[in-house]
Fold:
Amino acid sequence: MLMNLSLQRRLASEVLKCGKNRIWFNPEMLEEISTASTKQDIRELIEKGAIKKKSVKGVCRSRINKKRLKKVRGRGRGHGRRRGKKTARLTRKRIWIMRIRALRRRLKELKKSGEIDTRSYRILYRKAKGGEFRSVAHLNSFVQEMKR
Structure:
């Protein structure tokens, strides 16, 4: 015995302010629901528990979150997982910014500790700006050679 409850479904969706697909009818009270023809009737049925609003289906993010945690720890970032050039993953400018900041930090440390004087600090600072040093290690080795 199938009943056409499209009117009741539409009214219930308007009362509960949700889509028609989220309306749930109690299977034991279908007869009573089919007699409802006004929004007031629907409200009474909602109070009785004959009509309810289904909860929204969400997307489970547990798998994604687990994968992200692994990536934070450095997993799944090997050569086989990389798409695009090195510069697509980190731009040339961003790499330069990271390198120059590290070099300038190291130069400040060297000057503060007294390993280099102000004059040589200025020279090295300009060399760093000109892109002469590949890394902090390269700068350190250059300073060692300078001392000899």
Summary: The two ends are 100 Å apart (CA to CA).
